[in-house]
Write a structure and sequence with these properties.
By secondary structure, the chain is α/β, with parallel strands linked by helices. 46% of the residues lie in helices and 24% in strands. An eight-stranded mixed beta barrel has the order 14-15-17-18-19-20-21-22, surrounded by five helices. The chain has a six-stranded antiparallel β-sheet with strand order 3-2-1-6-5-4. Strands 8-9-7-12-13 form a five-stranded mixed β-sheet, sandwiched between helices. The protein is elongated, with a radius of gyration of 34 Å.
Length: 568
């Protein structure tokens, strides 16, 4: 055998061996014969069964949304308008599943310059494009495809024993601020691993967004089965995560939608799961199953959030003020600032119409910061008016759980006091017991720093929680506010009377002041005064009013109750 032939045979053997070993598929389009040759790997990737097929057979496997773009690129090669192409698109494989592939091609010309062949490679990019680079979980594209195929199987085999769950780590931004971005990433990796460990066979977990996951859960015969898995996931992820000596227990909320014959599109199931997730975030335990109308309510919430963002930005929020009264001297000693929303279509909205949603979305942070600044500015404006009663007044503003978690809260309050000129002792921040539960350590640190600054701290709605006495020892409160539910029954309900009496004794032993909320009639007022309650507020004195109405109220003294016969 001539040396040249032997060398050529060896080169062809090495080439054939390389083709077989390669993970890429190779193709050659003979423009003269109109045939398409594909390597074994190319044929397995495209599902084109013949070694010599046609380009149309290949193009029929390309996703409809991608086909026109790929055909345009191939035509550009064929007619010599470009020398090389590279395109990433979706293609249906032999198992009829969509996969991401990258095609590369070059034009081969004869001596006359005409293109006679177009050849290139095909590479499977599915794993890289359909996996989350941080956690390794499938991404949204993969998940949508998986759920779509699972729905098809449901129709084909009447098998609807699966559910889609939306899971979210709440307050993850606070975790990032506490642990740093690297610690936050490690937490997400650990959360993904714990979630994966819980999955039944053939179930799929996916990371969709920063701290949001979705699960296609197999073996869920009912909503109860899916909800049980959700509770197990919550328990697993609540186990403390430690990073550089800092421990944090992630809070998880889960929305559940059970598959049924009415399911037709993966995106709809996922949207329903996310709607249920929105409801889950507002309850405890934080698991909710989808019910009719949830999606509509979720859309309303989304619209409301956008409107509230605009309201904060464009000054649609206003402050109303309710007097706090010294019951012994019959004098106004301060005001509680209460936010209202002047909605363009719905009129003046009370806090319950938008504060829960603001807390859920995090908008409570800028809203609350604006509220503190506005209340302090208003008090300084009243003081400059020359009213002796307003000169001595203090201002109370509610503080939310999310504000307490902000690491720069104290600096923000300090900046407001400096900008408005109000002394710290004239500002009171009110905190409910429930606000302290979510992150007691962060709240404790913030509140002691506020106390050092000179700001007063009120425990709001005292007596309605479960850890009141413990909180009195751990946090620097100087005032207790008795919840209105106890005040309303004080004149005729023995239990309410005993509770208020106990709170007053407790406050005296701790050297704390007391404000009774919700005083609505003379009988309640007299009972509180008899028991020695020093301060109160309620509709009996005045309802929350805008600043102009407060000016008139103070000038005329219209808030003052008539003196009883017993006092005369």
């Amino acid at each position: 055998m001539p040396r040249e032939e032997k060398q050529s045979g060896e080169e062809w053997y090495r080439y054939a061996l390389a083709l077989e070993a390669s993970e890429e598929g190779f193709w050659d389009w003979d423009l003269v014969a109109g045939t398409l040759w594909g390597s074994a790997r190319f044929r397995s990737m495209t599902g084109v069964g013949e070694a010599c097929a046609t380009v149309d057979a290949w193009m029929d496997r390309v996703h409809p949304d991608d086909r026109a773009r790929l055909e345009l690129a191939l035509r550009a090669l064929r007619w010599g308008r470009t020398e090389r192409i590279a395109d990433v698109h979706r293609m249906r494989d032999q198992e009829e599943s969509w996969r991401w592939v990258e095609v590369r091609g070059v034009a081969a010309r004869e001596a006359t310059g005409h293109v006679t062949h177009v050849a290139g490679s095909l590479k499977d990019e599915t794993e890289r494009r359909m996996a989350d680079p941080l956690t390794g979980l499938p991404n949204r594209t993969f998940f949508v495809d998986h759920v779509e195929r699972r729905i098809v199987r449901g129709f084909q085999h009447a098998d609807w024993d699966f559910a889609v769950l939306a899971l979210a780590l709440d307050r993850f931004d606070m975790v990032n601020e506490t642990l740093g971005s690297q610690g936050g990433e490690r937490l997400l990796i650990e959360a993904a691993a714990r979630l994966q460990a819980l999955l039944p066979v053939r179930s799929v977990a996916s990371r969709l967004a920063c701290a949001e996951f979705m699960v296609c859960l197999e073996g869920a015969h009912s909503e109860q089965d899916a909800a049980q898995f959700a509770h197990e996931a919550i328990e697993s992820l609540r186990e403390p995560f430690v990073w550089n000596g800092h421990a944090t227990a992630p809070q998880l909320a889960v929305g559940v939608v059970q598959a049924n014959i009415g399911c037709s599109h993966p995106e709809e199931m996922m949207a329903d799961a996310e709607s249920a997730l929105s409801c889950a975030r507002r309850q405890e335990p934080a698991v909710a199953c989808y019910a009719e109308g949830m999606r509509e309510r979720a859309l309303e919430q989304l619209e409301m959030r956008a409107e509230l963002e605009r309201a904060i930005r464009e000054g649609e929020l206003v402050m109303f003020y309710q007097p706090e009264v010294d019951l012994r001297r019959n004098q106004i000693i301060g005001f509680e600032a209460l936010v209202r929303w002047k909605h363009a279509r719905r009129g003046l909205l009370p806090p319950m119409e938008f504060i829960p949603m603001a807390e859920e979305t995090g908008l409570i942070v800028p809203l609350g910061e604006w509220g503190i600044a506005e209340a302090c500015r208003q008090l300084m404006e009243w003081r400059r008016s020359g009213s002796e009663e307003l000169e001595r007044a203090r201002m109370s503003v509610n503080l939310s759980a999310k504000q307490l978690e902000q690491p720069d809260l104290v600096e923000r309050v300090k900046r407001v006091l400096e900008e408005t000129g109000l002394n710290a002792a004239s500002l009171r921040l009110e905190v409910t017991e429930s606000s302290l539960i979510s992150d007691a350590a962060a709240a404790q640190k913030a509140m002691w720093a506020l106390e050092q600054l000179g700001v007063g701290l009120h425990m709001d709605d005292f007596g309605t929680g479960y850890s009141s006495l413990d909180y009195l020892q751990r946090f620097p409160f100087d005032t207790l506010k008795i919840d209105r539910s106890f005040v309303q029954g004080i004149a005729y309900d023995h239990d309410s009377h005993l509770i208020v009496e106990s709170i007053l004794k407790l406050a005296r032993s701790f050297g704390m002041d007391v404000v009774a909320e919700g005083i609505e009639d003379a009988e309640q007022l007299e009972e509180l005064k008899t028991m020695g309650c020093p301060c109160g507020q309620g509709y009996y004195f005045a309802q929350p009013m805008d600043p102009g109405a407060i000016d008139a109220l103070v000038r005329t003294g219209a808030w003052k109750p008539r003196v009883s016969v017993a006092q005369a």
